[in-house]
Amino acid sequence: MSFGCVYFQVVLTLVQNFRFMANDGASKFVAMVPTHMSDDVMNGKLENFGLIRILSYTLSGSEKSRGIIVIKAEIVSSSIGYEIGADDKKESKAGHPEAGSKPPITLQPKPEKNGSSYVMSAARVVQEQFGNAAPTARMGISRRVYPLVTLNPYQGNWTIKVRVTDKGPLRTFRNARGEGNLFNVELTDEDGTQIQATMFKDAAEKFYPKLELGKVYYISKGSLRVANKQYSTVKNDYEMTLNVNSEVEEALDEKKKIPEFCYNVVKIDGLGPHVNGRELIDVIGVVQSVSGILSIRRKLSNEEVPKREIVIADESKKTVTVTLWGDLATNQGEKLSSVVDESPVVLIKKVRVSDFQGVSLSSNPASIMQINPDIPEAHKLRAWFSEEGKDAHMVSAGASLPGGGVRTGSRSIFADRKFLSDVILPTVGDGKPEYFNVKGYVSYIKPDQAMYYLACQSCNKKVTEDSVSSKFWCEACQKTYEECSRRYIMTVKFSDFRGEAWISAFNEQAEALLGMSADKLSELRSQDVESKVYSRELEKVTWVPYVLRISVLQTEYMNEKRQRITIRSLSSVNWEHESKYLLEQIASMKKEA
């Protein structure tokens, strides 16, 4: 049993699962109303002798009593009061149709008030309802439109109805097979499912001017393949390629059904599982600060790229730094800088999450930023900030990531557990950072080290103090400030029963370790000549057990390789969980023995 875009008349049997008899005028079969249409039956939108269009279905039953379970359908017409094909059978028995020909689809005559009657086909009903529609709208009626979620590389002909929700620039590529142009678009259907489509060479030249951002199209004769997650910007297992023979037609009357802007926001306190992951995420927040614009020179191309950093916060009372690159830093960043005092809300799509400063975000060429977007999440965030958030104490998201800033989901602190003797080997972290969990003790903190630096209160970058005016100059913001804050940048000696290592701790991690801000510690340090309070505060931290999430990276300084170990997060030891972990380790050792 197979059919494409065919209209069926419904004869409902009002049982618990809303079974009905589907009739296309030529044959009948038992079918079941999809769950999402149950309300349409109850409120009378779908009734006896109504017309529906079945979009997707599955077969059920045996060969002798085959039926279908409707997965997706849409209502074409309410009850028309006739049964399709009732007169066809009578005429067929009387021998009126020509031999071998199919009888036309007709409806059972309905007596009018004056006693007359008429015959109407299902096609006529559709024509009367959609006859004035645009050609592309009629094309959607005459062929089966597939939801994006049902497509796969092994499927034959298909047609999709999608909105272009993102469009990349026309770029030039060069490889062993030659050179040419290419561009990508992000397509979204009415269910909110997205897929990335790519066009190369002649197809790129043909469709780049035709596919416009925000418009809805019918697309067919494309091909699918498994998505390369490294380059894909949407959550879909497949990606689409359109060639020069693909068909793209604008759907003029189908714009309201498909969302204009799709997003899947990740809360700032939920960024931990996405750190160093390949997928891109969307984030929304209230802007706390905007830095000045800087130019960074790329090592590979020696090209200067504009850069700007913003800090955003949300209802979780966590903040995160977002680095904007290229046009976002210059154009959108400049707009943001002009309204930063109003604490605008920004929605940024397709940013990458890294472990810099525990956790941070970075834009890329595919990123999109909207300032004060008209969406429910933005209105809710604005209301929260006005009522509570503007006076709330904010904490960096990197300060309390469970298990550290790594792509682990709800990673256990026992995953990647190592001894320090395994970590300090010269081959560990060579070429790229490696991440581990270690359990041990802070055995020593040098009291005379540079524990902190003077930081800009807007961008957290280093500031210099003017000895004459006692004001502070921020090179990043290109501004002079009356005040500054102190931020930790310290090293501690960490030990376990197998070894020891010097480990760097930045502001959030050092605050969690010492239990106070760098400004407070600076006050104690200035009084320590007589009271020794500063020294005692440092001693309090030593020989307290912690579980650290650390990164290890081999660096080079003055032609000498050095290992840099950095605390990404820390937590107190839960002895109950630790005991269970040790018992599991003992059991596994017994099995190996």
From TrEMBL:
Please give the GO cellular component terms listed in this UniProt entry. Answer: nucleus
Please list the residue ranges annotated as the Replication protein A OB domain: 276-372
Q: Which terms in the Gene Ontology molecular function aspect does this entry carry?
A: DNA binding; zinc ion binding
UniProt entry keywords in alphabetical sequence: DNA damage, DNA recombination, DNA repair, DNA replication, DNA-binding, Metal-binding, Nucleus, Zinc, Zinc-finger
Start and end of every Replication factor-A protein 1 N-terminal domain?
Answer: 17-77
Pfam families listed in its UniProt record? Rep-A_N, Rep_fac-A_C, REPA_OB_2, tRNA_anti-codon
For region Disordered, the annotated ranges are: 88-115
Reply yes or no: does the keyword DNA-binding apply: yes
Subunit relationships: Heterotrimer of RPA1, RPA2 and RPA3 (canonical replication protein A complex).
**Under which name does UniProt file this protein?**
Replication protein A subunit
Q: Which organism is it from?
A: Ceratopteris richardii
Organismal lineage: Eukaryota, Viridiplantae, Streptophyta, Embryophyta, Tracheophyta
